[in-house]
Design a protein that fits this description.
Elements lengths: L1 H11 L11 H7 L5 E10 L2 E9 L6 E7 L14 H9 L3 E5 L9 H23 L1 E11 L1 H12 L6 E5 L8 H4 L3 H4 L6 H6 L14 H11 L2 H6 L26 E6 L8 H12 L4 E6 L25 H18 L2
Parallel strand pairs: 3-4, 3-5, 5-6, 6-7, 7-8
Antiparallel strand pairs: 1-2, 2-4
Length: 339
Amino acid sequence: MAHRFLRIAFVLTGFALFGPPLNAQDANKSSVPAPSRETYTYKTVGDCEIKADVYRLPGDDVRPAILWIHGGALMFGDRGTLAADQAERYLRAGYVIVSIDYRLAPESKLPAILEDIDDAYRWLRENGPHLFHIAPDRIALVGNSGGGYLTLMAGYRLIPRPGALVSFYGYGDITSEWTTRPSKFYLEGDRITKEDAEKAVGERVLSESPIFPRVIFYNYCRQNGLWPKAVTTFDPETEPSKFEPFCPVRHITKDYPPTMLLHGDQDSDVPFAQSQQMAAALKQHNVPHQLLRMKGFDHLFDKFPKGWEPNAEPIGLKDPKVAEAFDQVVAFLKMHVGR
């Protein structure tokens, strides 16, 4: 019983197994100078401070920035879950990393979450140049899973447009059957009662959290096809038109930013077809894009390329195929936002 539940939780997230992003000890091992890390509050809603961590290698030269958006089904996680090896790769390529929090569902709904992404981008453009020497017209958004979805949403919401988007196993349509019907994968776990699910969340607005216990609520939603309603209050069966603003695949135009999509074709949480659909829409509108199909890989391939099992090592970029994928990500970023 416990094994099945934990497997679902960690396949979904994998975050807590990593610890903080690149620190001085990691830097010494990799011959990369230790980055600075500064924490800022980019907005406050009531008594909820919403924060950003900024990572930068030494030097005062102006650099492009990566606005990094964590995953967690929009329901859990925080800015500190950026994996150390990924942070190092971006820093070594010449980027400043700005890892942000945002309000979490179900206490906050999707319009509020998207408002936070808008405000984080505005804050970065207005304050980044004098606070940590970034070029405001050379910003890329990078996110994984739920953060990948928010990245794709930002592609048509943000003005001026970001220079590039990179979505790791994100999704462009939140109303198709993978979210509105019970998930076969999540039903392999023990059934979660509504009472237990509701105990895992609350009423207080928050913008960061550990995986547990909130993942229980997410698993319940996926077992019952309730995730879209939980993050919006709308019913996709009876109010489909209300989801139009929240499906980026329906809002691609020629002005959409250059986009890179990375997705395992054996993803058990977010179907690979979600990235295929985004790629098809981008192609239709002649938007520069790249779809990197990670053959045989599951969700969280960038952290657990061999899949998650008990005692699995989060080898990340130690896997040659994952390292090659990140080389392609960096090349894509350099092409569209520089270095």
